[in-house]
Amino acid sequence: MVTAEECFPADIGIEEGRIAQVGSPQRETGTQVVDAQGKWILPGIVDVHTHMELPLEAAVSADDFATGTRAAACGGVTTIIDFSLHRRGDSLEKCFLDRRQAADGRVAVDYGLHAEIIDVNEAILDEIPHMVQKGVTSFKLYMAYRRDGRMVDDGALYAVLKRAGEVGGLVMVHAENGPLLERLTDELLGDEKLAPIFHARSRPNVVEEEAVRRAIAICRLAKGNLYIVHLTTRQALMAVQEARSSALPLWAETCPQYLLLDESAYLSQEGRDFIATPPLRSSKDQEALWRGLAQGTISVISTDHCPFTKEQKRQGGESFAQVPNGLPGVETSLPLIYSQGVDRGRLTPNRLVMAMATNPAKIFGLYPAKGSLEVGTDADVVIFDPQAEFTISAETLHMNTDFSPYEGLQGRGVVQLTVLRGEVIAENGRFCGSCGGGRFLPRRRFEPQQCQL
Ligand SMILES: [Zn+2]
After folding, report:
1. Given strand 170-174, what is the order of strands in its sheet?
2. Rounded to the nearest whole angstrom, what is the distance from the C-alpha of residue 23 to the centroid of ligand 1?
3. Does the predicted model carry a pTM greater than 0.85?
4. How many Å lie between the centroid of ligand 1 and the Cα of residue 279?
């Protein structure tokens, strides 16, 4: 068994969807036995950043709640947290209920929702305590995407941080300076610089660093709780490290694509398929992110799963600015982080479990039911073979896209079995659960003192 704290040999007993014993369970007649000799038992992976069936201006992300969570199950993920989609003029509750309607009865793993907020006014602010009570305890704000109408200004960010902070809510920010990157994009397009590499040039590191520092300053003023999604740069990491050392309630996540890939991917034939926001960075940034994870400055690995097909990526024409942003990832995160992180000595096995299961469950109000292997908690369990070899191929993966950014990548570490509340939902890369077998998870309010991670 591998937990966030230790690794030890043990058997595990499951009864009625919960972990009943750890150690040497009694076997009653009729017990189904799984031999995990030589394998690792991990808590089910908790991916707190996915975008199933997300309608962007250019295209709708290719996985819906059914295909995306089936793929998640095959990759050892037993919980996702997706986002409700805020429409101007609608209440947060209406948007939340609409999103539940899209997901309920179709998800193959358990799921929660963060509430996206694109328009901050008194009515929306007044809804925050109510949403927290309903189990939606995290709110997502964009500091970019002004032209899509999703960006909020600094005053709005302050107001949400303050109100959410008062009632045990956590504010997640997409930290990029929107107006700045829009101007840089216009300059590039004006010079006919349309190729995929200019996506990275339109959003240099400082665009993220400045927004992260600003969000931190505003959080301090508002006495809120802040979570930086998809952190990518060494400079922003430094800002997070400084703020955390002054005891600000602040957490950051990064994603496999920023750990494994760099901006040279934009120069390849398939460059546009790699377009995601923030962009892929330099190898210097990669190394800093791995160190940040190993040291605990970065608390969480999520995927920002938002796949598109090659055709969808090409629909907009030649310009990088017209390509729908996002990459597939929910199915491959565990094997990739194991093989590139643990197997290469960059992360301990415990640190992997911490960043991919325990910390996300703690920060987002699901611990210990999720993210742990303690007696009495949900029997969300992964049997993982650290020796088995894999080669990534979009063809054999279950995500609804014909593209994998890791095509051909080889490594060790394969998910053998995924168990959701005691039911086997995937075995050796084959889904055997049911779409609709996942449940909505109302989450507990945010408690900073429980998240001294
Ligand atoms: Zn995202």
Report:
1. 45-47, 77-84, 110-116, 138-142, 170-174, 226-228, 250-254, 300-301
2. 39
3. yes
4. 12
Distance 201 CA to ligand 1 centre (A): 20
Q: Which two tokens stand for residue 229?
A: 């999604």
What the block records as the tokens of 300 is 């969480």
* The length of the chain, given as a count of residues: 453
The whole-number pLDDT of residue 56 equals 84
**Cβ atoms of residues 201 and 141 within 8 Å:** no
274 C-alpha to ligand 1 centroid (Å): 15
Tokens of 96: 């939340």
Structure token digits, residue 179: 């107006």
Interval between CA 257 and ligand 1 midpoint (Å) = 13
| pLDDT exceeds 70 at position 452 | no
Residues 156, 176: Cα–Cα separation, whole Å: 16
Q: Cα–Cα–Cα angle for 401, 318, 309, nearest 5°?
A: 5
Check if the beta carbon of residue 356 is closer than 8 Å to that of residue 303: no
Task: Give, as residue ranges, everything with CB less than 5 Å from ion ligand 1.
Answer: 304
Distance of CA 188 to the CA centre of its chain: 30
Residue whose C-alpha is closest to residue 80's, from 420, 345, 336, 446: 420
Q: Mean pLDDT in the chain?
A: 96
- What proportion of the chain, given as a percentage, has pLDDT over 90? 93
- Interval 363-411: pLDDT, tens: 999 999 999 999 999 999 999 999 999 999 999 999 999 999 999 999 9
CA of 30 to the centre of ligand 1 (A): 44
* CA 28 from centroid of its chain's CA atoms: 39
Distance 429 CA to ligand 1 centre (A): 26
Percent of all residues in the chain with a pLDDT value above 70, rounded to a whole number:
99
